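Fold it.
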Amino acid sequence: MVPRSLPCALFALAVLASGCGENRRDVFMAGLEIEGAAERGPCKLQPAAGPGVPQGASALSGDTIADCLQQTEAALAKYKRAAELGLSDPDFVSTYDRAKERKARLESMLKMVRQMENDQVLHPAK
């Protein structure tokens, strides 16, 4: 025979355990922090320097774009988790969509820059 207090104790334990899980808002904020750090780090455009380089030009390398893409993917993973936890307010949705678009642009940019870098290695300027 099961004691009457056992179902109540199990229910209380389940309620306590669910309260200790991930908070969708905290997961979203963690994604924003990753994106912010990326914008200040690998995603920040670095000015190009050298003879014949126009003023205001930026230096791009496949490695920095790959680092930026990696950080964007990490933020997207957090956003996906927040969506799985039920976050659906308009600010979150627009941030999530913008990050997906940024990822697609970075993937395209990385492909082009890597191709240019490979061309320079195969056909160096004389």
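The helical segments are 5-19, 24-40, 62-84, 90-122.
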